[in-house]
Design a protein that fits this description.
six-stranded parallel beta sheet; alpha/beta; 461 residues; binds uridine-5'-diphosphate-xylopyranose; binds adenosine-5'-diphosphate
């Protein structure tokens, strides 16, 4: 089966960049990204894309209007597609059974119902969103029960492994492409059709095919293993602070063991992002549901440690500032969950700012990419009352005005530009003692000390 027309439901951080790359690499395939969010689609069709991602503008520009289209006409896009990626959000459920752990599949279900209603002929449906194991069988059931006799479907799992901030690099030269399908002649044909799309730029040996459930589970497990490494090194950061060891030196020493490897050993104020917490919680829920409480408990600790890492950072600030931050000005540099993205989902900065505001601190904040509206919305959703946001939060467009008159400075995102700040100028602008809490180890500790700061870096004794 040759794919001529692709549609993607969901123009988010995953759907947008992934489809832009497919369009750029496969000029013979028409790629349409459909979303009901009119503002988002308008932004994809403008010069200011809704997603900040290095290199994305060029990839989109190379294909948009030729074989890459962004539209709110979801029905039209489904009707003409041979292959449909489902890349809608799957947030953690906030209500009812499985609240706080299970994935909320309502967007997946409504997408499947719409596909069933509109489709004619044969279509391949590809799960791109991260979903719990066995979701493919739910999608299949919905499709079978709601489609006409003229429609046939094959459901595949093709999880996305791109990381934000490096999405274009990850899409261009992925470590692997994973495709799961049913082990039947039509299932195999669908897997091959999708593999042929990727084979336009990804070497065949990097395209791994598995059964559906292995593919669905592998996405959760990959993220759980990565999150576990961060929680592991963060647990050691506390021990380093207590003993006088340096967590970066420990990470370098153990990372040289080829069995351990050097990546994902950077201690931080905690991991954030739309995937890690959600996927680990999803795994925990899955284990509980399948009667495996020991396995669930094991993975739950990865989240507990991450929560603790964020709260112990706040506690460190409060204790150091003579046990009170009431009315004190704390300058925060960075709000995104990592550098090179404007995404703030589950960013540790949300929780650090919430708790500092709860301690009645005044916060001055600067992030090079996150909009003031997003910051305020995140804090409101995290439970900070509107009147506190209005009175105790200042958002700046310049790091130096942010630190003016501050009792303390905390770095919460590792933006490259923070590495070249004029530290002497910052010291002169701050109140003394000039406390620094480097939650990302981006500032040079020795230089800070030499200038006169009173610095703390996570994981350094
Ligand atoms: C992650 C996975 O890496 C990706 O494969 C998957 O498709 C989606 O989830 P993402 O969340 O975009 O990607 O970014 P990632 O680079 O994994 O960082 C996640 C969080 O961990 C960030 O808050 C980052 O700052 C933190 N982190 C990462 C650390 O604290 N230390 C590290 O060593 C690495
Ligand atoms: P991700 O990070 O996984 O890409 P996002 O939340 O950024 O997730 O994007 C998911 C997008 O999916 C949102 O823009 C939302 O409007 C869209 N969406 C949800 N349901 C549907 C649907 N049935 N059809 C099309 N788009 C949908």
């Amino acid at each position: 089966m040759k794919i001529n027309s692709i549609c993607c439901l969901g123009a988010g951080y995953v759907g947008g960049p992934t489809m832009a790359m497919i369009a750029a690499k496969c000029p013979d395939i028409q790629v349409t990204v459909a979303d009901m969010n009119e503002g988002r689609i308008a932004a994809w069709n403008s010069d200011t894309l809704p997603v900040y991602e290095p290199g994305l503008d060029d990839v989109v520009a190379s294909a948009i209007g030729k074989n890459l289209h962004f539209t709110t006409d979801i029905r039209g896009a489904i009707a003409k597609a041979d292959l449909i990626f489902v890349s809608v959000g799957t947030p953690t459920k906030s209500y009812g059974i499985g609240a706080g752990r299970a994935a909320d599949l309502r967007y997946i279900e409504s997408a499947a119902r719409l596909i069933a209603e509109i489709s004619e002929g044969h279509k391949i449906i590809v799960e791109k969103s991260t979903i719990p194991v066995k979701t493919a069988s739910a999608i299949k059931t919905i499709l079978a029960a709601n489609s006409t006799e003229h429609a046939t479907f094959e459901v595949l799992s093709n999880p996305e492994f791109l990381a934000e901030g490096t999405a274009i690099e990850d899409l261009e030269t992925p470590d692997r492409i994973l495709i799961g399908g049913e082990i039947t002649p039509t299932g195999n044909a669908a897997v091959e059709a999708l593999a042929s799309v990727y084979a336009n730029w990804v070497p065949r040996e990097k395209i791994i095919t598995t059964n559906l459930w292995s593919s669905e589970l592998s996405k959760l497990v990959a993220n759980a293993f990565l999150a576990q490494r961060i929680s592991s090194i963060n647990s050691i950061s506390a021990l380093c602070e207590a003993t006088g060891a340096d967590v970066d030196e420990v990470a370098r020493a153990i990372g040289h063991d080829s069995r351990i490897g050097p990546k994902f050993l950077k201690s931080s104020v905690g991991f954030g992002g739309s995937c890690f917490q959600k996927d680990v919680l999803n795994l925990v829920y899955l284990c509980d549901s399948f009667g495996l409480p020991h396995v669930a408990e094991y993975w739950r600790q990865v989240i507990h440690l991450n929560d603790w890492q964020r709260s112990r950072f706040v506690e460190k600030i409060v204790r150091t500032l003579f046990n009170t931050v009431n009315g004190k000005r704390i300058a925060i540099l960075g709000f995104a969950f990592k550098k090179d993205t404007n995404d703030t989902r589950e960013s540790p900065a949300i929780y650090v700012c919430r708790d500092l505001l709860g301690e009645q601190a005044k916060i001055a904040l600067y992030d090079p990419q996150v909009s003031p509206e997003q910051i305020k919305q995140d804090l409101l959703e995290a439970g900070v009352p509107q009147h506190i946001i209005d009175t105790n939060l200042e958002i700046h467009t310049d790091p130096y005005s942010t630190v003016e008159g501050a009792h303390a400075l905390a770095t919460l995102t590792e933006w490259d530009e923070f590495k070249s700040l004029d530290l002497e100028r910052i010291y002169n602008l701050m109140l003394k003692p000039a406390f620094v809490f480097d939650g990302r180890a981006v500032l040079p500790m020795d230089k800070l000390k030499a200038i006169g700061f009173d610095p703390f870096t996570i994981g350094k004794g």
